[in-house]
């Protein structure tokens, strides 16, 4: 079954870090890039960054540059998103999403989302 | 960064009516634009890519058009399950960006 399975909800204090995982199955992991998209409560979608699973190249949203790192582990077909120095406005559902094809960066496969709550 | 502006913010329609949603880009994105549908508590679902190509399994009542800076998603006859929030997304340039969304609600 083709799917992305994300790790569970997290509660963090301001200034802490969080690392969310996204395990792929049912397809060749290295053939597709992975983006991370977040959605604050009641708000729209915000693209955070993209990683080429094939060669590790990354692109990040400028507002998160320096605080976010995307990585993959091809041995376990898992992608990771680490966000550091958390603030209250980082409270959101975080999604991983797969590219439609290697060069078409739309997202046809999504994880179910991971709620990250940041509160003192 | 390419800004995508969606209008209207909310569209109030009845089942069976036609829905027309707009997405305008701050600069040309060629035809590199997609549309997604999102229902409460769910991840987005890809409807249309490259402006006019329906994704796998998407009903024919959904259609996309446009190029350059102006794009339209049309739902020819609203079904009850179509009431949701719709987002556009461009892949023309980094960073990838989403529009702010249009909520299609039952009138």
Number of H/I helices of chain A: 0
Quaternary class: heterodimer
Structural class of chain A: mainly beta
Distance between the termini of chain A: 39 Å
The class by helix and strand makeup of chain B works out as mainly beta
Distance between the first and last residues' Cα of chain B: 35 Å
The string of secondary-structure elements of chain A, in order, is EEEEEEEEEEE
Strand percentage of chain A: over 45%
Q: Total number of β-strand segments of chain A?
A: 11
Major pleated sheet of chain B: 7 strands, mixed
pLDDT averaged over residues of chain A? 96
- Give start-end ranges of low-pLDDT stretches of chain A: none
Shape of chain A: globular
What fraction of the residues of chain B are assigned to beta strands by DSSP? over 45%
What is the approximate shape of chain B? globular
Mean pLDDT of chain B: 97
Helix content of chain B: under 10%
Spell the H/E element sequence of chain B.
Answer: EEEEEEEEEEE
Gyration radius of chain B, rounded: 13 Å
Instruction: Please tally the helical runs of chain B, counting DSSP H or I stretches of 4 or more residues.
Output: 0
Poorly predicted ranges of chain B: none
């Amino acid at each position: 079954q083709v799917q992305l399975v994300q790790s569970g909800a997290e509660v963090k204090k301001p200034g802490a870090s969080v690392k969310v995982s996204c395990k792929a199955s049912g397809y060749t992991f290295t053939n597709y890039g992975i983006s991370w998209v977040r959605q604050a409560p009641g708000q729209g979608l915000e693209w955070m960054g993209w990683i080429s699973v094939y060669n590790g190249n990354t692109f990040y949203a400028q507002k998160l540059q320096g605080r976010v790192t995307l990585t993959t582990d091809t041995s376990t077909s898992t992608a990771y998103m680490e966000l550091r120095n958390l603030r209250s406005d980082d409270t959101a559902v975080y999604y991983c999403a797969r590219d439609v094809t290697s060069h078409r960066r739309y997202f046809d496969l999504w994880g179910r989302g991971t709620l990250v709550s940041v509160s003192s | 960064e390419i800004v995508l502006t969606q209008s209207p913010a909310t569209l109030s329609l009845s089942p069976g009516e036609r829905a027309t949603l707009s997405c305008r880009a701050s600069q040309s994105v060629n035809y590199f634009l997609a549309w997604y549908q999102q229902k409460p508590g769910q991840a987005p679902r890809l409807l249309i890519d490259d402006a006019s190509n329906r994704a796998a399994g998407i009903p024919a009542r959904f259609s996309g058009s446009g190029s350059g800076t102006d794009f339209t998603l049309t739902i020819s006859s609203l079904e009850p399950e179509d009431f949701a929030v719709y987002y556009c997304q461009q892949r023309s340039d980094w960073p990838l960006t989403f529009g702010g969304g249009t909520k299609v609600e039952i009138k």
